[in-house]
Specification:
mainly alpha
């Protein structure tokens, strides 16, 4: 990794959302053992758009609904998201997208 990560909170989310950039996203993804592909970036950009629009990080259900509207049904399924962000897709994708932890996510 070429630079140190910005300050993170106790759960590994960015302390300051303005610290996010693609390099930071790649570093955060590496902490989750995820190598970002074009498919990941599509979801991350959609997540950031959701946050701009609604000022909150979506839990899984609103996330899949939003992705279905913006990326299509094939990219909005829980199974698809689990292949990209194993474990807890809404939480892990929000972390990598530099957003606050979604409410109701374990």
């Amino acid at each position: 990794m070429s630079q140190n990560l910005p300050e993170l909170d106790k759960d590994g989310f960015l302390a300051n959302l303005d610290d996010w950039n693609p390099e930071v996203a790649s570093q955060l993804a590496a902490t989750e053992e995820i190598e970002l592909t074009e498919a990941h970036w599509e979801v991350l950009h959609a997540l950031r758009d959701f946050y701009q629009e609604f000022d909150l990080s979506p839990a899984m259900r609103p996330l899949t609904k939003y992705l279905k509207q913006h990326l299509g049904a094939d990219k909005a399924s829980s199974i698809y998201l689990l292949t990209l962000f194993p474990g807890s897709p809404a939480k892990i994708a929000a972390k990598i997208a530099g957003l606050p932890r979604p409410e109701n996510c374990l």
